[in-house]
Predict the structure.
Amino acid sequence: MANPTSQVPSTAQEYEDTKGIWPIIASTATTYQTGEMVGVDPATGYADHFDDTKAMKFLGLFDGLHQVQDSTSPLPAYIRYNRPYRFSMPLASGTATRAGDITSNIYAKDSGHVAKSGTSNSNLAGTIVDIVGVTPEDIVTPTGGQVWIKPP
């Protein structure tokens, strides 16, 4: 196969650029909180709160509404999300340790908390990569109620 002889219509997304825009159901009157997890409903393709009410795929963290004005709806039809390399999230209950929980899968309990074991829909939020320390002693042996997560 010959190499291209004209400009190739490709696009690059820089590694540092972790933000994107995704459609939501514009008629749904819901409130999103900055920093909460959002996911995509595979049945509809729309973004929603990433919780355990239905099977979803992790999208990222809510970063704001993206206003799109058209003649059919004055409501925002898109959200801005941030899909960072890593993020921290509080555990719904219990604590995590470096010795026992690093590299374990972590699941959405609701859009603002994660659980170490799968729940009804077992919506994977990612893998535990570290524990968030609370005190100076936690630097050595942290045991905390919040974890650092690498998205799937």
Remarks:
- The helical segments are 98-101.
- The chain has a mean pLDDT of 82.
- The CA atoms of residues 52 and 119 lie 7 Å apart.
- The chain has one helix and twelve strands.
